[in-house]
Write a structure and sequence with these properties.
The protein contains twelve helices and eleven strands. It is of the alpha+beta class. The chain folds into three domains: 54 residues, no CATH class; 149 residues, 3-Layer(aba) Sandwich (Cytidine Deaminase, domain 2), CATH 3.40.140; 118 residues, Cytidine Deaminase, domain 2. The longest helix is centred in the first third of the chain and has 16 residues.
Length: 354
């Protein structure tokens, strides 16, 4: 008799299983829209808003510096960093906002997720996938380790979308134009230079922000990040350990067309596992390690790295000196973030045709 294995939740929790706004949420959106457009705060509006903010007095909201729409969107998301397309469309319709306007309204909420203990400069980004879903991104800084480990908000949004199975992005919205290294990373996406970058005062295509670009085509690649073929991998030592299996799945979904060294990781807490896949760039730097991807998923769920109990990295064993490996960097960063976590490296091999 085979023991029943513990099931780990790999995806962020959906806001609503039916994909529509509950009646109370619709009433609040209508009331807040009336206030934002007319400046008139009726009794019903005040009552609904006060209830929706878990007892916080409405006067406190008005004095906090946050707009009422921002306050409600934050309440509605409940800490989630993924907004399904149908809910986004309904919110935009009721607030009479265009998609770019709604994305701009979500930027302050994305910034609240930032972990900027070094710079104290919080950045928020909103990306829209080809599915129409919205994904929040935020900058992540790690004290006590080199700055190269820092995750930009735009890259965080890409990895957030990738973890939900998105096959590309339509556009991203931010308060400022992305940095040069971020532009290079975004050029690896299926949309390439056609990706729309929406700023408060203008919208531009990525190719306008990255002239004389260098990307996958220049390296002879036909695939792209978020839209590449699956790696055909198997463990060298078969196991029924669910955390190892999750790490293997992450390695199978990794994007490593330049080094041909796919890898993936699973970070296990007491009740969940969070996976990350290695993602390369034609310029090599920036590339995203599997650990960075998994930490993005962990933080996007509102969890802390101190909750990590175990990490399993799956990658190919060393066969020659030209291979790259993630083990040393993974142990270094985890040794700072969660020194008591157990770190395991499991070898994998490429199956024929993989």
């Amino acid at each position: 008799m085979v023991a029943k294995r513990k099931k780990f939740d790999l995806q962020p929790q959906k806001l609503n299983a039916q994909g529509v706004l509950p009646p109370g949420e619709r009433d609040l959106l209508d009331a807040l829209h009336q206030f934002e457009t007319t400046g008139m705060l009726g009794l019903k509006t005040a009552s609904i808003a006060a209830l929706a903010t878990a007892g916080q007095p409405l006067t406190g909201i008005l004095q906090s510096g946050r707009r009422l729409v921002t306050e409600h969107l934050s309440h509605f998301l409940k800490g989630a960093t993924h907004l399904p397309a149908q809910q986004a469309r309904e919110i935009a319709r009721r607030l009479e906002l265009t998609t770019p306007q709604l994305m701009q309204e979500l930027l302050p909420i994305a910034r609240e997720h930032a972990r900027a203990s070094i710079s104290h400069y919080r950045v928020g980004i909103v990306a829209q996938g080809v599915s129409g879903d919205f994904y929040l991104g935020f900058n992540i800084e790690f004290p006590e380790v080199p700055l190269v480990q820092t995750v930009n908000a735009e890259i965080c949004a890409v990895m957030n979308a990738l973890s939900h199975g998105e096959r590309g992005l339509r556009c991203i919205a931010g308060s400022n134009a992305p940095s040069g290294s971020v532009r290079q990373f975004l050029y690896e996406l299926p949309s390439g230079g056609e990706l729309k970058v929406m700023l408060p005062d203008r919208t531009a295509k990525l190719k306008a922000l990255l002239p004389y670009s260098f990307g996958p085509r220049e390296m002879g690649q036909t695939g792209a990040l978020m839209n590449s073929s699956r790696n055909n991998l198997e463990l060298m030592e078969p196991t029924r350990d669910p955390v190892v299996e999750h790490a293997l799945e992450a390695a199978c979904r990794s994007y490593a067309p330049y080094s041909h060294c796919p890898s993936g990781i699973a970070l296990a807490t007491d009740d969940q596992s969070f996976v990350g896949s290695y993602c390369e760039n034609a310029a090599f730097n920036p590339s995203m390690s599997p650990l960075q991807g998994a930490l993005i998923s962990l933080y996007a769920h509102g969890r802390k790295h101190s909750e990590i109990r175990r990490a399993v990295l799956v990658e190919r064993p060393r066969l020659h000196g030209d291979q790259i490996h993630q083990a040393a960097t993974t142990r270094m960063l985890l040794g700072v973030l969660c020194p008591d976590a157990a770190v395991q490296v499991a070898g994998c091999r490429v199956l024929s045709g993989g």
